[in-house]
Design a protein that fits this description.
- By secondary structure, the chain is of the alpha/beta class.
- It has two domains: about 180 residues, Vaccinia Virus protein VP39 (Rossmann fold, 3-Layer(aba) Sandwich), CATH 3.40.50.150; about 60 residues, rRNA adenine dimethylase, C-terminal domain (Helicase, Ruva Protein, domain 3).
- It contains ten helices and nine strands.
Length: about 260
C-alpha cells in the first residue's frame, strides 16, 4: 500500500533505508524517550524511529497518509494536523525527554524551523532532513553570503550542526535540489532581552543587508548614539551575540 506524493504538500518520500536508519540514529533518543515526528508520510522514517523509542507520536496533515499509517502501525499515536497550527502542549508528556524529527517539506522549512526554535527548550534535540541550501544557512558563520536571519536565530537559540548531506536520488519523486540533515539542541537559558524585540532588530538589519546598521536600524535609533556596537558595520559582520547586545541597548534606551 502506497500513496502518490502530492506536489501541493511538497511530498518527496525518502526511500534509502541506510539514510533513514542514519537519521533515526542521529536523534539520539532512548526507549523511554518521546519522539515527535513531523510529516511521516508513508512511515519510512517512523519505522526506524520505532526501533529506538517505544513512544513515538506523528503529526501528519494528509488524510491518505494517516490511513496508511493506521494500517501499517496499529496503535501508533497519530495527530492529523498542520504542524504550523499544532499546539506543542498537546504533544508533550509529563516526565519525559522529548525529541523532534522529520523530513520536512521544502516550501515550509523556515516556518517550521522558526516554530520549533520559538517553542522554548522543552525538548532535548531536533533532527531534520531539509533542503541543503537552508541547512547551510542555519550554520553559516558571520561574514558569509548565506549568513542571515535564520543563521542568527538558530545560533542564538541553540546549538546547530549540519550532520550529513543526502542525494536527490534517495527520494521519490526526486527533488530538484540536494538535501541535508541538521540537528538543533536548544539552549536552556532564556535570552536577556525580549524575544520579539530581538527578532525585530535582526529582521530590520538583514532586510537591508547591504546597508550599514545606522541606516537599516534608523527607525529604532531615532538619532540616538549606540556605544556597544559599531553602527558603520553591515549586519553580516556581527556575530549572533552582538544582536542580543544591540537589542539590549536599543530597547533600554527606548524605555
Amino acid at each position: 500500500m502506497q500513496i502518490k506524493p502530492k506536489k501541493s504538500l511538497g511530498q518527496h518520500f525518502l526511500k534509502d533505508e541506510n539514510i533513514l536508519s542514519k537519521i533515526a540514529s542521529s536523534v539520539l533518543a532512548g526507549k523511554e524517550d518521546r519522539i515527535i515526528e513531523i510529516g511521516p508520510g508513508e512511515g519510512a522514517l517512523t519505522n526506524h524511529l520505532l526501533k529506538h523509542s517505544d513512544d513515538v507520536t506523528v503529526v501528519e496533515i494528509d488524510q491518505r497518509a494517516v490511513e496508511l499509517l493506521e494500517h501499517k502501525f496499529p496503535g501508533l499515536d497519530i495527530v492529523q494536523k498542520d504542524i504550523l497550527k499544532a499546539d506543542w502542549e498537546t504533544l508533550k508528556t509529563e516526565n519525559k525527554r522529548h525529541f523532534i524529527c522529520g523530513n520536512i517539506p521544502y516550501y515550509i522549512t523556515s516556518p517550521i524551523l522558526f516554530k520549533v526554535m520559538d517553542s522554548g527548550h522543552w525538548y532535548k534535540r531536533a533532527v531534520f532532513l531539509m533542503q541543503k541550501e537552508v541547512a547551510e544557512r542555519l550554520v553559516a558563520p558571520p561574514g558569509s553570503k548565506t549568513y542571515g536571519i535564520l543563521s542568527v536565530q538558530a545560533q542564538i537559540f541553540g546549538k546547530t550542526a549540519l550532520l550529513f548531506t543526502v542525494s536527490r536520488h534517495a527520494f521519490f519523486p526526486k527533488p530538484n535540489v540536494e538535501s541535508a540533515v541538521i540537528s538543533f539542541e536548544p539552549y536552556a537559558q532564556n535570552l536577556p532581552v525580549d524575544i520579539a524585540n530581538f527578532k525585530q532588530v535582526v529582521r530590520m538589519a538583514f532586510n537591508q543587508r547591504r546597508k550599514k546598521l545606522s541606516n537599516s536600524l534608523s527607525p529604532l535609533l531615532a538619532g540616538r548614539e549606540i556605544e556597544s556596537i559599531d553602527l558603520n558595520l553591515r549586519p553580516e559582520q556581527l556575530e549572533p551575540k552582538h544582536f542580543v547586545t544591540l537589542t539590549e541597548e536599543l530597547f533600554s534606551e527606548i524605555s
